[in-house]
Write a structure and sequence with these properties.
Blueprint: H1 2-14, E1 23-29, E2 37-45, E3 48-56, H2 61-64, E4 70-77, E5 85-90, E6 97-104, E7 109-116, E8 130-134
Antiparallel strand pairs: 1-2, 1-8, 2-3, 3-6, 4-5, 4-7, 7-8
């Protein structure tokens, strides 16, 4: 019984969640928004990838596409196919900057930003403006 308590205390102190080091990925601007810049910061926690997407240099979505009102961040698996996931809308201020903090169960994926007519749109309809491939480096 004493060994079981020690083992339980050891497991509790170490924890079951796997937390990897944070990684940053620069986002490449496309011809549709050449002045835009962005960065994706990721951190693996348990089965999810937490990410923060920061953008700068984006003007109003309607200036890119007249029918658009939002900038939406998408995650699309790099392998095995699968539909893009709407991770949420970035609120870009008058200073042309914005940030979205969110999470996905994907581990290797492409992140991109598109102008969209609705924040909760189920699939991308706008052109990609900023793009990054998230491929975590192997842990040592």
């Amino acid at each position: 019984m004493h060994r079981m308590c020690i083992w339980s205390a050891l497991v509790a102190s170490v924890g079951f969640s796997i937390v990897a080091a944070a990684e940053d990925y620069p986002m490449a601007a496309t011809k549709a928004a050449p002045a835009a810049i962005g960065q994706v910061s990721t951190k693996t926690e348990g089965p999810n990838t937490k990410l923060a997407v920061k953008v700068d240099g984006l003007t109003s979505p309607s200036s890119v596409d007249a029918s658009s009102r939002y900038y939406v961040v998408w995650a699309e698996p790099l392998e095995g196919g699968g539909a893009p996931q709407n991770l949420g809308a970035i609120d870009v201020g008058k200073d042309t900057k914005g940030e979205l903090k969110t999470a996905t169960p994907l581990t290797q994926f492409q992140v991109y930003v598109t102008p969209e007519p609705a924040a909760a749109i189920p699939s991308p309809s706008g052109r990609q403006l900023l793009v990054a491939n998230v491929v975590p480096r192997p842990q040592k």
